[in-house]
Amino acid sequence: MSQYNDIRNTINRTAGFTLEQKRTLRELARTALGDSPAAANQAAASLQAAAGAYKVAIEEKGDLVYTRILVDLTGLNSGGAGDVIGVDASTDSAAIFHVTEAECGTVIGGRLFTYETPLTGDDDIDVVLSATGTTAEDAAPTSGTTVVNSGNIAAGDTDNFTAFDMAKPYIYLVGATGADATYTAGIVEIELVGYRA
To answer: At 195, is the secondary structure helix, strand, or coil?
Structure first.
C-alpha cells in the first residue's frame, strides 16, 4: 500500500480541497489501488501457509480506518500456557499482524470475533500486544500486554480490547491454558479501529 500512502499524503498536503473532497479522493485512490496491506505488516509466510486461511483487509470510511485480520486456526498449534499460537516447532514469528500508522491510522481499540469454535487446540485464546515481532510459537510474547482475556471462546463471541498501545504494534494470539495441540477448527477475526490525523 506504499503507493496509496504516497497518494494519500499528497492529497492531505494539497491546498484548495475541502475536507470532504479530500476524503472522496482518498477513497477513490484506495479503491483503485486495493485494500491489502503491505507484506511487511502481515503474518510470516509460514503462518499464512499453515493456517486454514489468513486474510487481511483495510477499509477507510472518511477519516476512520478499519483493519480486519481473519485467521482460520486449523493447522496452527497452541503450546504452553501463555505461549503464542503459530506453526508447530517453527522459529518464524507468530505475530498475526504488525500495526503501523501508515497502514492503520492511529489505532484506538479493537475486538475479537469468533466465527467458529476452536477445537483440539487451546480454546482459551487471548490477544496480546508486543513491542517485539520475533516471538515464535510455544514462547511467551516479549513485553506482552494482554488486551483480550477471553476465557474459552465459542462461535458468536465478541471480546472487546481493553486498550491499544501503538508502542506495542505486534499482535499475537496466545493460548492461556497450555493445551499443546494442533487446531482442527476455529475461525477468529480481529477488527481494529483507527483514525487519520
So the answer is: strand
